[in-house]
Amino acid sequence: MSSKASRENLTVRALVSNTEAEIIIGDRHANIHRVQEETGVYAGVSEAVRGVKDQILAVTGTVEGVVKAFSLVAYHLASLRVEPTDSSSESPLSPHPPTKLRILMPHRILPDVVGRDGKKIKAIQDSTGASLGVTGKMLLRSTECLVAVHGSPEAIGKAVEQIVMSVPKDSGFGKGTILFKPGTGDRERRARLSSEGRRRRGYLVTNAWCGPSSSPQPLSSEKTQTSAPPVLETRKMSIPEDMVGYVLGRNRSNLAWIRRTARAKINLASQPTQKKGDDAERVLKIVGTTLAVETAISLIEKRVERARRLRGSQAREDEDEEQG
């Protein structure tokens, strides 16, 4: 880890159960205070909400501090799994049973962590001894997904470090992210189900014991009416005019592949926004679900970045030939 990277502050969030939250906080906040004092980070747990089983642990500090903080959090969780006996006492060096942390990860940077064909995430597992499970599906009303890290406290800390360091510096964990809030939509879902239950109760109870009949048609019709279509969003992004060809590909094959992979509609403006040489940009209009839009943007950004790297290496080769 470079000294510059270790000094930069970032925030890493994790989804914890109510029981885990109590352990992390500790009696009279002793555990959370210890984490902050020993690592120099700010660590906090969101308030528990009645009827909601999860809370958010947020840790802000340097990469080194955040990594150490998550190791300590995992240590506290693992310690509760050890049942001391009268004949044995636990030492600081005693191995702890594996535990699990659920890291909240912006969906758009998930490809940076997983890598092509899962090679990067496999390398993280091999080098740290932790096992990682990735859920590609975004959490309700957010652009975050879960990366479950399972292992010893030391392995979890190393894995968190590898995850953080695999994210490009200009992407960041929180940049442009819609944060997940536990319980979002739960009350609305319960209210909707309760309302539908009241509306259908007489009909359903009557027919539940009468066997098949021709009357279920209204229920089928109501289901069709109440099923909401997916919510679509429209987003625009600009790419340098001289990178348009790389994004489109031969016969627009690259753009077609991005559309299919992301399942989004992507339209390219016919003219650049500015006609000033290198400053000219072309606007892309992306329409789809939040997941589709985020995936499309990530794929486009990666193609542009790859094109820049290729140009840079080609320029260096040309310069070497001229000097030679």
Automatic annotation (TrEMBL):
Comp. bias intervals (Polar residues): 212-228
Comp. bias regions, Basic and acidic residues: 184-197
Keyword RNA-binding set for record: yes
Protein name: K Homology domain-containing protein
Keywords: Repeat, RNA-binding
Top-level lineage group: Eukaryota
Residue intervals of the K Homology domain: 8-78, 97-168, 231-305
A GO term, aspect molecular function: RNA binding
